[in-house]
Amino acid sequence: MTAPVVLITGALTGIGRATALAYAREGAHIVVSGRHQDAGDLLVKELGSLGAQAEFVRADVRFDDDVRYLVDRAVERFRRIDVAFNNAGTEGWRGSITDVTDESYEATFDTNVKGTLLSLKHEFRAMRGTGGGSIVNVSSILGLMAFPESALYAGSKHAVIGITKAAALEGARHGIRVNVIAPGFTQTAMYERSTGNAYNRDYINSVLPMHRPGTPEEIAEAVLYLGSDKAGYITGQTLTIDGGLMSGWPLTPAA
Ligand SMILES: NC(=O)c1ccc[n+]([C@@H]2O[C@H](COP(=O)([O-])OP(=O)(O)OC[C@H]3O[C@@H](n4cnc5c(N)ncnc54)[C@H](OP(=O)(O)O)[C@@H]3O)[C@@H](O)[C@H]2O)c1
Fold this sequence. Notes:
Layout: E1 5-8, H1 14-25, E2 29-34, H2 37-49, E3 53-58, H3 64-78, E4 83-86, H4 102-128, E5 133-138, H5 151-172, E6 176-183, H6 189-195, H7 198-207, H8 216-227, E7 238-241
Parallel strand pairs: 1-2, 1-4, 2-3, 4-5, 5-6, 6-7
Keywords: NAD, Oxidoreductase
GO molecular function: oxidoreductase activity
Family: Belongs to the short-chain dehydrogenases/reductases (SDR) family.
């Protein structure tokens, strides 16, 4: 079997990084992308030590030219892209709807929504030329519900689910599957930033059905599945990975 060629945005930390490492262990060829050259070079070394052929391409997903170059470089190096994981995302700005500004909208939507659209645009171009592929976008449980003062982040992650459905319908006739994951609380730097402090995290754990956040590695396993031929008839779907949170309220407090 030939090694799959995998492209990952926002690959330098958290879920993106865990997914890159998981793909390296599977023997994939990997193009990792992010905004920091030094961290990218280090990650490529780490992936290489696991036996993967890997390359870092610096790209900010808010910019069309960056994403075009990223995709073109991946195809130039490995001839095709089999799996794209559009993971780059930001918690953006949080606050009251009455305080939304041009800047706070752009700080959230330009990465989470425009970045996803630009990634799909160029990945479709590449995959249509090579007979298809699998794309996994990243939403959130806040793509399915909201918290107070989360209008921008929740709005952006709801948008990613709608974009995924439209892209899946368009991709179907070209052999391109497009799905989206909706992680719940997942132990990454974003989780640490958004939850603020240990007191808040203890409270969150007490109401989570499994009384713990997910790990980036648990999210990565779901991405590998959706990216693979084992998910060959699955497209346009949202896979919630939240330890049961969206199923309801656990009723009993943590022991
Ligand atoms: N952790 C959670 O609880 C959780 C829950 C639901 C969904 N998610 C989603 O999961 C994805 C990964 O997040 P994470 O939890 O792994 O947090 P993270 O460690 O902060 O990862 C986000 C990555 O995206 C990169 N990024 C941000 N803006 C970018 C841009 N414009 N261009 C290119 N890269 C950019 C960040 O790099 P920089 O250092 O350059 O900013 C970072 O490496 C995000 O889409 C997030 O919304 C996370």
